[in-house]
Design brief:
Order of helices and strands: EEEEEEEEEEEEEEEEEEEEEEEEEEEEEE
Strand order of the largest sheet: 2-1-3-30-29-28
Shape: globular
Number of strands: 30
Radius of gyration: 20 Å
Number of helices: 0
Structural class: mainly beta
Distance between the termini: 13 Å
Oligomer: single chain
Length: 345
């Protein structure tokens, strides 16, 4: 087993008052240190968007987002989520594909009011609202909501209505589900989907959807390509290249996304939580241990033990470029990037 000593020499990029210094090399682990609480990560390749949160003395919570390329500078999106008197949150459903970010904001009162979606790029950091009739109350939106998935230049979005008192179907279901592509700053509808259909992942023209215990891979027109029926709903399901992996009952089930054929079943260590998939390897977490499991033969390696490892929204993530993880401390958080060359083959 390889332990966290592998990265004992990690360089640090320190963020304070909107300025930063970063290591000029990405051949070794690099760490971004922030004084704010790290709420969530959105990664693509060797880039990461970091949602951070600061609670003011008044009790108001201010959300911000940072864009970081390890070995390069840190940029802050010029928007903070503390513009409202009512409880609110910004940068919800934060998603990164190449150098473009997309997210929605919410204000909470009698209902959860959705604003956006907004997008920004590394070259144009000022947020721009994507026109739509779904969630922006300023334009008479329908109180629906959004989430997103994508890598590189491939983007998809899902809109839905959250129903906690439906006339038909189970409580707390998601109704009126629609799937869109995001092209040229506009949404183009791909398909209407059955209620409670979730958007799990998207990559290279393939979209992974889930309805209960059924996984479905569809193409860029929403046309089904492959379907997988699981014994129970997975705790996580991800798509990467020629691999589709679902976590069910403590095991990782690997499938061919083109046919839905089962390739192998690999057991995770007790308590394992599936968090990432790239380059023929699955990332899962047990306590503070980060595991990489090779899908070809099931070889399982603990690559680090990280005190204060974040587990929820800011959980570790794996890309073809490397591994990102967050370690929390009493002053904020530390986002570390480990290049693929430093990980077990």
């Amino acid at each position: 087993m390889v332990r966290s000593a592998l990265w004992a020499a990690a360089a640090a990029a320190v963020l304070a008052c909107g300025t930063a210094e970063a290591s000029s090399s990405v051949s070794r682990p690099t760490t971004l240190v922030t004084r704010n609480t790290v709420v969530a990560l959105a990664v693509d390749g060797a880039r990461v968007a970091v949602r951070v949160s600061l609670k003011l003395k008044s009790g108001v919570v201010c959300d911000s987002a940072l864009f970081w390329r390890p070995g390069g500078k840190v940029s802050r999106i010029p928007k903070r989520g503390c513009d409202f008197d009512a409880p609110s949150s910004a940068f919800d459903s934060l998603t990164l594909a190449r150098t473009r970010l997309v997210w929605v904001d919410h204000v909470y009162g009698n209902f959860s009011y959705c604003y956006g979606p907004f997008t920004a790029t590394l070259k144009a950091l000022k947020p721009v609202r994507i026109p739509n009739g779904v969630c922006d109350r300023l334009d008479g939106g329908q109180d629906s909501d959004w989430d997103f998935a994508g890598t590189g230049n491939f983007w998809v979005a899902r809109s839905y209505e959250y129903c906690d008192d439906c006339e038909t179907g189970p409580p707390n279901q998601e109704d009126n589900v629609k799937l869109y592509s995001l092209t040229g700053g506009r949404f183009a509808k791909l398909a209407s989907l059955p209620n409670d259909t979730r958007l799990e992942d998207a990559e290279d023209g393939q979209i992974l959807l889930r309805q209960g215990a059924t996984l479905q891979v569809v193409d860029t027109h929403g046309k089904p390509q492959a379907s997988v029926q699981l014994a129970k709903p997975p705790t996580a399901a991800l798509l990467s290249g020629n691999d589709l992996v679902a976590a069910v009952a403590g095991s990782l089930l690997t499938y061919d996304p083109a046919t839905g054929a089962l390739r192998a079943t690999w057991a995770m260590a007790t308590g394992g939580r599936f968090r990432g998939l790239a380059g023929g390897r699955a990332l899962y977490v047990v306590g503070n241990d980060l595991h990489l499991l090779r899908l070809s033969d099931g070889q399982d390696t603990v690559v680090a033990t990280v005190p204060g490892l974040a587990h929820r929204q800011a959980h570790p993530q794996l890309t073809r470029a490397g591994l990102f993880y967050v370690a929390k401390n009493h002053r904020g958080g530390r986002v570390t990037f480990v290049p693929t060359a430093q990980l077990p083959a």
